[in-house]
Write a sequence for this structure.
C-alpha cells in the first residue's frame, strides 16, 4: 500500500472540539490512514491517505462539507 499525505489549510479558527470532530470526519473517508492537527498549527490539517482509495479533491471537499473554508497547501 502506498501512502501519500496532504496538508489542508482551514481558514477559520477551530476549537479543540471542532478539530477533533473534523479529524473524526476525515477518518471515515475510505483510504484515510491518519488525519491530524499539530499543536501550534491549528489551521493546518495533515492527512495521510492511500491514493489508491481516495484523492486530495475528496479530502478537500470533506473539509468544506464540514462548513469550513479550506484549500490545499502546496498544490
Amino acid at each position: 500500500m502506498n501512502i501519500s499525505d496532504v496538508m489542508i489549510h482551514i481558514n477559520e479558527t477551530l476549537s479543540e472540539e471542532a478539530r477533533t470532530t473534523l479529524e473524526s470526519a476525515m477518518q471515515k473517508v475510505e483510504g484515510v490512514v491518519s488525519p491530524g492537527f499539530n499543536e501550534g498549527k491549528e489551521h493546518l490539517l495533515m492527512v495521510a491517505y492511500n491514493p489508491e482509495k481516495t484523492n486530495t479533491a475528496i479530502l478537500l471537499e470533506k473539509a468544506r462539507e464540514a462548513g469550513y473554508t479550506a484549500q490545499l497547501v502546496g498544490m
Remarks:
- Residues 4-72 form a domain with the Alpha-Beta Plaits fold (CATH 3.30.70.100).
- Strands lie at 4-10, 32-38, 41-49, 70-72.
- The chain has a mean pLDDT of 95.
- The longest strand covers residues 41-49.
